[in-house]
């Protein structure tokens, strides 16, 4: 079994579920642990994958963003 698995995450925020597979670009705002600074990335969501016990959002650009770092999607706050 591969260390990376593509998953369907049952607890995805509704804003993310709506964007997956639609081909639309979105704005994701996130914060890394230990900092109060917020960062953003804009791109097309391809899906969610899991490595070990951590879930990642995968973007068409090749960027992967930890799901637990996510603050908002297109201006809509997501549960922490």
Which key phrases capture this entry?
48% strand; SH3 type barrels; 1 helix; 8% helix; globular
Q: Level of helix content?
A: under 10%
Distance between the termini: 30 Å
Could you give the count of β-strands? 7
Report the CATH architecture.
Answer: Roll
Report on this structure.
- The protein has 80 residues and is mostly beta strands.
- The chain has one domain: Roll (SH3 type barrels), CATH 2.30.30.
- The protein is built from one helix and seven strands.
- Strands 1, 2, 3, 4, 5, 6 and 7 form a seven-stranded antiparallel beta sheet that branches.
- A hairpin with a 2-residue loop joins strand 6 and strand 7.
- The longest helix is centred in the N-terminal third of the chain and has 6 residues.
- The N terminus is likely disordered.
Brief characterization of the structure:
Helix content is 8%, strand content 48%.
Write the layout of secondary structure elements.
Layout: E1 4-7, H1 14-19, E2 25-30, E3 39-51, E4 54-59, E5 64-66, E6 70-73, E7 76-77
Antiparallel strand pairs: 1-3, 2-3, 2-6, 3-4, 4-5, 6-7
